[in-house]
Amino acid sequence: MKKRQIKKNEKLHVKLYTSDEFGLLTMTSDERDAAYKDYQDKRNKMANTRYRILKNMKPLHYFFPFGKKFYKHFTRSRKLTSGPRGSFNTQSATDIIQ
Predict the structure, then answer these.
(1) For FRET with 3, which of 45, 57, 78, 83 sits at 20 to 30 Å CA-CA?
(2) What is the pLDDT of residues 26-54, one digit of tens each?
């Protein structure tokens, strides 16, 4: 494809939407720049596909990944909550009567 066609496809026909930007809030500035660059690369890659495919393609939603610090905190809290539970004591009817 020529550059003019790629630019036209990217502006008019690429249906790649960012539906959730919470991941950007949890990132540092370097991670945010890298994530935005990945998003632009994905748009450019989609713009290189044929118009016939782009025209019939359903809209895609792009989710930015979480920041490393947030992800580390999230996995740590998940491990704490999904660990082994304490022991449960059960009572029978005879224990209540006595």
Answers:
(1) 57
(2) 888 898 899 889 888 888 887 777 777 77
